[in-house]
Amino acid sequence: MNTTSNASAAGQITLGGDLTVNRLGFGAMRITGPGIWGPPADVPTAVRVVQRAVQLGVNFIDTADSYGPDVSENIIAQALYPYPADLVIATKGGLVRPGPDVWDRNGQPKHLRAACEGSLRRLRRDRIDVYQYHSPDPRVPLADAVGELVRLKDEGKIRHIGVSNMSLEQLKQAAAITPIVSVQNRFNLEDRRSDGVLEYCAQHAIAFIPWAPLDSGRHAQAGSPRPLARIAERHKVSMGAAAIAWLLHHSKVMLPIPGTGSVKHLEENVAAASIRLTAADLEELS
To answer: Which CATH number fits domain 18-218+254-266: 3.20.20.100, 3.30.360.10, 3.30.300.30, 3.30.390.10?
Structure first.
């Protein structure tokens, strides 16, 4: 099984006109404890996973202040600071964590400012490359929340603004306020409810970052759709890698960020960058 690929084989995508990254990134949610709460059981392994991702050509890492909370950002800094010159770290604010597996929205401008400034401290950065509004808060007008990110950008604390978990209408509203460089919505082989958002991103050169690219791990296990298992066997890769390869082929603006706390699974996922699915493969998966 191929586990020696480099993320650069997936090609590149440019965010905001000035940040070019390999089109296979790493999502850093799973380097935390159970329920995305607290530290992982083995911090040194989590550190090695992040370091190995960069060794394999990953130069886009996605995290959030709510992962842990704070844990993921701290581990990234522990593993990689001082950072490689080409590394882009995207983080998010707008969700708060009262306990394991609990995610509450807070889009108040005051909270978003505090969240961004906390991320800057933990990541040991003067400016966040891509700062994403994690999930719209129905109690806060979108213009107020996104407007605060614009102010943080004007102050030099944010380089580019992204959004997450947004409908097409919300994305259009946000884009009317400020340039949006990325959208992070749930999307995978069997969940394509954000197809309209993806189409808008393709039309406007916005990176689409699919979260749950392996359907929270289901597409990497025995319960995967049957065609996926056949295609994985055909290309001599894991089922997870085959699912990621489908995402990469599905759209040129797709920037998958499969996450894991295992070096082995990381290497299997990065193998997706080198897979070239055939027309017959794609028809089977359609």
So the answer is: 3.20.20.100
- Note the pTM of the prediction, 2 decimals: 0.94
* Helix and strand element counts for the chain (H, E): 10, 11
For residue 286, is pLDDT > 90?
no
- Summarised one tens digit per residue, pLDDT across range 209-235 is 999 988 745 545 555 557 888 899 999
Q: Where in the sequence numbering do the catalytic residues fall?
A: 67
Average pLDDT estimate for 11-34: 98
Buried-state track 64-94, b at ≥16 Cβ within 10 A, e below 16: bbbbbbbbbbbbbbbbbeebeeeebbbbbbb
Instruction: Locate the DSSP E strands across the chain.
Output: 12-15, 19-22, 26-27, 60-62, 88-93, 95-96, 104-105, 128-133, 158-164, 180-186, 207-211
pLDDT of residue 2: 47
Q: What are phi and psi of 107, to 5 degrees?
A: -100, 15
